[in-house]
Design goal:
This protein is mostly beta strands. It is built from no helices and 11 strands. It has strands spanning 4-7, 10-13, 18-24, 33-39, 46-52, 57-59, 67-72, 77-82, 91-99, 104-107, 111-116. Strands 2, 4, 5, 6, 9, 10 and 11 form a 7-stranded mixed sheet that branches. A 4-stranded antiparallel sheet has the order 1-3-8-7, with no helix packed on it.
Length: 117
């Protein structure tokens, strides 16, 4: 079982920045991949970015260049640096972790990000 705790959300003006953190209850070096997803009111949850245990990253195309995912294995933490925030980035941001053996997926409780215009 992997527990994930997100932090760093809040209210920011358009054009501002936030850095989200996701701390895992286990060594993330043992986790195949971690990522961030978001869900805006009335919309489906969508991929923001993922990072594998080898450091490979994938981003949702519209967010590439503004958002950066990174990991610190020593702190069992994955980060999401968000720059040039827009009102449409307003959503609950969720941390996700997955393992292949066994095939499991874990979610954090989410952190609210609100971008005012």
């Amino acid at each position: 079982q992997v527990q994930l705790v997100e932090s760093g959300g809040g209210l920011v003006q358009a054009g501002g920045s936030l850095r989200l953190s996701c701390v895992a209850s286990t060594r993330i070096s043992r986790i195949n991949g971690m990522g961030w997803y978001r869900q805006a009111p009335g919309k489906q949850r969508e991929l923001v970015a993922v990072i594998t245990s080898s450091g490979a990253t994938t981003y949702a195309d519209p967010l590439r260049g503004r958002f950066t995912i990174s990991r610190d294995n020593a702190k069992n933490t994955v980060y999401l640096q968000m720059n040039s925030l827009k009102p449409e980035d307003t959503a609950v941001y969720y941390c996700n972790a997955w393992t292949i053996f066994p095939p499991q997926s874990y979610w954090g409780q989410g952190t609210q990000v609100t971008v005012s215009s």
